[in-house]
Design goal:
alpha/beta, Rossmann fold, Dehydroquinate synthase-like, alpha domain, 6-stranded parallel beta sheet, 21 helices, 10 strands, 56% helix, globular, binds zinc ion
Length: 447
């Protein structure tokens, strides 16, 4: 299936997005699309100091020339993240019945998405980089009261992806997008685990729209690094399909699991490297590598030999888990986070018995399926290296000890059933995590 046919098919399962135009120069179509969707309305270009010259100004001129009443708002900051104060800012800008034209990458889009929703309006996205999958996703990821939170709000009604602009974005933004797309490899494997456990069954439409083409979309890291228009278009399409998968699922499950939580920890602790906040995709890259390495070890176990009785006997009570979570997150910006999430996802011993019995019984077949889905660490490492994404935590300033210390938080900080939860139940968690940081492991602590 070619790209056009794939997109047409994917739009059918997207609940919010009705129009997706992608190609060189397509931003010229924006006024026409706007008129069709929002007859008689006023537009406001929302951009920042980088995206205004990259595309915002051109869009503003196109709209003005087309006779559409258009204003502009430029966020005049060198560095900003999706924080609540900017939500308030953009909210004020949309007062007066404006339709937002989001000209930018992840942050600008998330702000426009949430603020348009606050005004009961749809909006139009004009992405400037293939840096995240958030353009087309349901929900906006915003820091609110110290915690990274996903606010429910619809995706843009139209996305106009001008590949001339997107391919000219800074290379590290495209590499970040590549990593955000690659994250769907281990995230998919963890969804398979949640599906087997019955906590979050796989939704076929949301699974196939992305996972069926994912390997193909990740197969040209050199093209991504060289900003070849076709490679960048394929990457952008993959990221968009990921968003459509989230629209179809009305959740981020198809696109995100443990690998994203490493990034959330760095966001919530305002982690900086060389004075700078690190991009979502770069943070997700090291989480993705961590999860590929964890899967490498996990898939080497023979769980048909699992001693279910022993595991069930050793299974902690809810009170023990809550206590562990409170201790672990004591100095975290949101100290109650682990407690809240483990309380949501805790299973009593008898449920754990059923879960382990199920895994033990189907392990040979299930392991084969997981192996088909997830990439070995070595492969992911080589792909990231070729694409220009970080292939070692140290490249974004995270040392090995920090990396290891993040694992227990990652396990507890979200209600979602993940690989680490399964490893805990099977009593292989410590051994699995330690294997990454032991001599011969991917990130030997003493090397
Ligand atoms: Zn992401």
């Amino acid at each position: 299936m070619d790209s056009k046919a794939r997109i047409a098919k994917a739009l059918k399962i997207a609940t919010d997005t009705k129009i997706f135009e992608m190609g060189p120069g397509v931003s010229a179509m924006a006024p026409e699309v706007f008129r069709e969707l929002f007859p008689g309305k006023k537009a406001k270009v929302i951009a920042d100091i980088n995206t205004w010259p990259a595309l915002g100004e051109k869009v503003y001129e196109l709209f003005t020339a087309a006779g559409i009443p258009t204003e502009k708002f430029i966020i005049e900051e060198e560095e900003f993240h999706a924080e609540w104060k900017y939500v308030e800012l953009v909210d004020r800008e949309l007062d007066g019945d404006f339709i937002a034209l989001s000209v930018g990458s992840g942050v600008i889009n998330d702000l426009c998405k949430l603020c348009a929703h606050h005004h009961n309006q749809q909006y139009l996205a004009l992405p400037t980089a293939a840096s995240v999958d958030g353009y087309s996703s349901f929900g906006a990821s915003i820091s609110y009261q110290n915690a990274k939170q996903t606010f429910s709000c619809p995706a843009p009604v139209a996305i106009i992806a001008d590949i001339d602009v997107i391919a000219a974005a800074p290379k590290e933004m495209t590499a970040a997008g590549y990593a955000d797309l690659a994250a769907k490899v281990p995230a998919g494997a963890e969804w398979m685990i949640a599906d087997l456990m019955g906590t979050e069954p796989i939704i076929p439409d949301a699974w196939h729209v992305l996972q069926d083409v994912l390997d193909e979309m990740l197969s040209n890291p050199d093209g991504v690094a060289n900003a070849e228009p076709q490679a960048v278009a394929d990457l952008f399409e993959g990221l968009t399909l990921s968003g459509f998968a989230m629209q179809a699922a009305q959740s981020s499950r198809p696109a995100s699991c443990c690998e994203h939580l490493f990034s959330h920890i760095l966001d919530m602790t305002h982690f900086r490297f060389q004075g700078k906040l690190q991009s979502h995709g770069f943070q997700v890259a090291i989480g993705t590598l961590a999860m590929c390495a964890a899967f490498d070890t996990f898939l080497s176990y023979d769980l048909t030999k699992l001693d279910v009785d022993k595991c069930v006997h050793a299974w902690p009570t809810l009170e023990q888990e809550q206590k562990r979570a409170l201790e672990l997150f004591r100095d975290f910006p949101v100290p109650e986070l682990g407690y809240t999430e483990i309380t949501k996802k805790y299973n009593p011993a008898e449920v754990v018995r059923d879960q382990l019995t199920k895994v033990k019984k189907c392990w040979p077949e299930f392991r084969r399926k997981l192996r088909d889905q997830v990439y070995p660490f070595k492969k992911m490492h080589a792909l990231f290296k070729a694409a220009g994404a970080p292939y070692d935590p140290s490249m974004i300033g995270v040392d090995r000890k920090m990396m290891k210390d993040m694992f227990p938080k990652v396990q507890l900080m979200r209600f979602r059933f993940n690989l680490l939860d399964l490893a805990k139940r099977a009593m292989v968690y410590d051994e699995m995590v330690d294997s990454l940081f032991a001599p011969g492991g991917v990130w030997d602590l003493d090397a």
